[in-house]
Design goal:
Layout: E1 9-13, H1 14-18, H2 27-38, E2 42-46, H3 51-58, E3 67-69, E4 74-77, E5 82-85, H4 95-98, E6 106-112, E7 117-121, H5 124-132, E8 138-139, E9 150-157, H6 164-175, E10 179-183, E11 188-193, H7 198-209, E12 216-220, H8 226-231, E13 234-237, H9 243-248, H10 261-275
Parallel strand pairs: 1-2, 1-12, 7-8, 12-13
Antiparallel strand pairs: 3-4, 4-5, 6-7, 6-9, 9-11, 10-11
Helix pairs in contact: 2-10
Length: 277
C-alpha cells in the first residue's frame, strides 16, 4: 500500500480493541488517536452497538467516514445522523417476532433500522449487557412492531445449561428460514436476515467516503470482521484474535486486544508516514 495516511481509511473493531475494562476508550487509545488525527489519519469503527451506544463510548471523537454498526447491519453517518440499513426481516412476515421464544431466563432485544433498541423480553444477562454497553432501549411488544423495521434479533441466555439456543437454532435450520445465525459469546445468539452481507456494508462505507476497498486498512479483533479483513487493501489482527482472523490478516500485532493492539497498529501507521517523508 503506497498511499499516504490521509488517503487511507482505518476501520477499527471498537468493541474488541479500543475499550478498556470499564467500557471506555483507554487513555493510551485516546493519546494515540489524538496523534493519529493530528497527522491526518482517518478512522471509522465497526461495532455490535447501536449508534447512540457507540457515540456514548466514542465521546467527542469524530469519525472520518460512516461506521459499520449493529454488527455491520447499519452503515451509519454520525455527521448527518442518518443510517443505511443493510437488510430486514420483511421476508419472514410480521408474525416472525411473535415466534421468538418466550422462556424464563431468555432475553430478547431487537436492533431497529432507526438505530434504537427494543426489548421484547428482559433477562438478567440482557440487562447486564444493556448497562455495560450503555445502550438506551425501549420496552416493546411483538404485535406493535413490524419485521421490516428490524435489523437483528439478539437472544441472551441467563443459564447456559438451558438447551433453548441449540433447539431454536435447529428449528430455524430445519425450516429453511432465510435467517443467518451468529454466536456472540456463549450467552448471546444473533438472528439476522440471510441477505445481510459485510461485503455490501463495506462497499456502502467506501462509496459514501469516495474511496475504493484498497484504500481501507482494517484492524480486527473479532470474527464478525473476517470478511472486512479479506476485502481491505491492508489488514491486521490482534495477537489473541481467533485463528481464522489471524490467517486472513496481513499482519498480526504484538499486543493482545485488551493490551493495546489497536493503538499499536495506529501508531505504526503514523511512524510509517513519518518515515516516508
Amino acid at each position: 500500500m503506497n498511499q499516504t495516511l490521509e488517503e487511507t481509511l482505518v476501520l477499527c473493531d471498537l468493541d474488541s480493541l479500543m475499550l478498556g475494562p470499564d467500557g471506555n476508550l483507554t487513555q493510551v487509545m485516546r493519546d494515540v488517536l489524538q496523534l493519529f488525527a493530528a497527522r491526518g489519519g482517518r478512522l471509522t469503527v465497526f461495532s455490535q452497538r447501536t449508534p447512540r451506544a457507540a457515540r456514548t463510548v466514542l465521546g467527542s471523537l469524530r469519525l472520518a467516514a460512516p461506521a459499520l454498526l449493529c454488527g455491520g447491519s447499519l452503515v451509519y453517518s454520525f455527521a448527518s445522523g442518518n443510517g443505511l440499513p443493510m437488510g430486514s426481516f420483511t421476508a419472514m412476515g410480521d408474525d416472525f417476532l411473535a415466534k421468538l421464544p418466550s422462556v424464563p431466563g431468555v432475553g430478547v432485544a431487537l436492533q431497529m433500522q432507526d438505530g434504537t433498541t427494543r426489548v421484547l423480553r428482559m433477562s438478567r444477562v440482557l440487562e447486564q449487557h444493556l448497562r455495560q454497553e450503555w445502550t438506551p432501549y425501549l420496552l416493546g411488544k411483538a404485535e406493535d412492531l413490524r419485521s421490516s423495521e428490524v435489523l437483528r434479533a439478539l437472544l441472551y441466555l441467563d443459564n447456559r445449561s438451558i438447551p433453548l439456543i441449540q433447539m431454536f437454532e435447529k428449528a430455524l435450520s430445519e425450516s429453511n428460514a432465510p435467517i443467518q445465525i451468529e454466536h456472540l459469546g456463549s450467552d448471546c445468539l444473533v438472528l439476522a436476515p440471510q441477505e445481510l452481507s459485510m461485503e455490501e456494508a463495506f462497499s456502502a462505507m467506501c462509496e459514501a467516503d469516495g474511496i475504493v476497498p484498497e484504500q481501507v486498512a482494517v484492524m480486527a479483533g473479532s470474527m464478525p470482521m473476517l470478511d472486512a479483513v479479506r476485502l481491505a487493501g491492508r489488514s491486521a489482527a490482534a495477537a489473541d484474535a481467533p485463528p481464522e482472523l489471524q490467517i486472513s490478516a496481513g499482519k498480526i500485532m504484538l499486543c493482545r486486544g485488551a493490551e493495546g493492539a489497536a493503538a499499536e497498529f495506529l501508531y505504526g501507521l503514523v511512524r510509517e508516514s513519518e518515515n516516508a517523508r
